Fold this sequence. Notes:
The protein is 49% helix and 20% strand. With 480 residues, the protein is an alpha+beta fold. It has three domains: 4-122, Sandwich (Jelly Rolls); 159-303, no CATH class; 318-467, Heat Shock Protein 90. A five-stranded antiparallel β-sheet has the order 1-2-9-4-7, covered by helices on one side. The chain has a five-stranded mixed β-sheet with strand order 11-13-14-16-15, with helices on one face. The chain has a four-stranded antiparallel β-sheet with strand order 3-8-5-6.
Amino acid sequence: MPEDTHTPVAIEELLQSPLFEGENPEAVEWIANHMHLREVEAGGVVWLQGQPVTEFQLILEGELHFRKDDDPFAHLIVGTAGQPTGVLPFSRMKNATGRVWAVVPTRLAVMDAGHLRELVYRAPIVAQRLVAQMTDRTREITRMEEGSNRLLALGKLAAGLAHELNNPASAAVRSSALLREVLNDRRKAAVALHGVVVPESVRGQMTGMIQSVADCLSTPGGMDALEKADLESELTDWLDSEGLPGSLASELVEARVTVADLRPLAADIPADILAQFLRLIVADHQTLCLTRELEEASRRISDLVQAVKLYSYMDQSPVAEVDVEQGIDVTLRMFQHQLKHGFQVVRQFAGNLPKMHANGSALNQIWTNLIDNAIDSMEGKPAGEPKVLTVRTCIEPDDILVEIGDNGPGIPQEVQRRMFEPFFTTKGVGEGTGLGLDIVRRIIRSHQGSIWVDSVPGRTVFQVRLPLKAGRLAPGDDQH
C-alpha cells in the first residue's frame, strides 16, 4: 500500500465534493481533522484482494479501478474525483473482494473506519449520502458479478460448441481434399476410356454397374466385418488371376461389386480397359461417399448454428410466446460436448405443453444454470458408475412444471438453506461466482414462478413451476 503523507486535508478540498454540500461547517471541519492525505502513483495498488479494509476514503483527484484476481470479467471503475470508497457507514465489508488500483496519479483523503460511527452522528447529511453510495455500489457490484456469471457460463458453452463445430468442419475440409484427388483419378480413368468401343450388351452391363453404385449408397444397412473380409479376399484372388489391380478389391466390395458381376465383363473386355473401368467405378463410389460426408458435416454445422439461434433467441423479441420444451432441448444441445462423456440423458417431455408468454433467453439461462450444476455434481462419481441427468416436464392445473434431476452425491442440508443466497458458493476460488442460483430464482420470480429443491444422497431434483396465466411481461422488464 502507498505511504501516507500525513498531510492534513484542507476543508476547501472536501467541499469540492458534492458529498458535503449543505452539511454543517463544524461537521465538515471535524471530518477534515480526522482525515489525512495519501498519494498513489499510476498503477499503484490501494487494496489487494483479501486484504482487510479498515479505512474510509474520498477520491480528491484521479481514478480508481477494481478487478477480481480470479475473474477476468469482473472489472469496474470504483470512482473518480469527489467519490467515496473503502469502508462506508453500516457496511459489513471486512476484506477487499478484489484488487483496487490507481489508473492515473491519485490523491485520497483517508479516515480510519473507527471514526465512522461518530461521523454518522456529527454529519447526518454526509452519512445519508454515503449510505446511498453504498447501495449504489452494492447494486453495481451485483450487476458486474451477474454479467461475469453469464460470461463464464457462455465461455463454458462456447468451448463445447467450438469442439462440436470443429469436428464436422474438419471432416468437411478433409472430405473436400480427398474429393479433389478422387475427381482427378476419375478424370484420368475417363480419358483412358475415351473412344473405346465395346459391344452394346457389355455397355449395358457397365451402365447398370455404375447405377448400382448410386443405389448402394441410398440403401440402408451394410455387411458385417467377417462377410466383408471374405468377399474382399475372394475378389482380390480373382483380380490377381485376371491380371487386374487387386488393390481395388476393398473399394469394389464397398461399392457392392462382386466376382459374379465382373466375370461377364472380363470375357468381353481387354484387361487394361476393364482395369480403367474398375478405377472409374471406384472413383464414382468414393465421390458419392465423400459428397455424402460433406452433406452430413454441413448439416451438423447448420444444426448447431440453428441451435445457437434458438438458444439465444436471436432475431426475436425478448418477450414472446415461448416453447419451454424446445428451450430445454436446445440448452441440452449446448451441453452436448460435456454430456457425451459418460452421461446418460433421460428426457421425459410431456409433449403437449402450451406456449407461455415469457423471456425465452432468460428461461434458457435457468436451464443452463441447473443443468450445469447437475453435470458438475456428477463429475466426481467413480468410473463405471452411471451419471444420469433427468429432465421432465408436465402440465399442472395452473403451471408448467420442469424437473431437472441428477444422481450425484446430493446437497447437504446446511447448503440447501443457503444455496439461493447471492454470492454463496461451495466451489473453489475462480470456479463460481455464487450467483447462478440467485439469478435463477430472480428470473423465476420475474415470471411469477417458484423453485424448490429436494435432495438426498444419490438424488437431487430441482422443480421449477411457471404459471400458465402469469401477468404479461413487458419487453423492458429486468429479467436478470
